[in-house]
Amino acid sequence: MPPVVIYTKATCPYCHAAKALLKRKGAAFEEIGVDGDRAAQAAMAVRANGRSTVPQIFVGDRHLGGCDDIHDLDDAGELDRILAG
Question: I want to staple 40 with a disulfide (CB 3.0 to 4.6 A). Which of 11, 26, 34, 83 is the partner?
Answer without folding.
Answer: 34
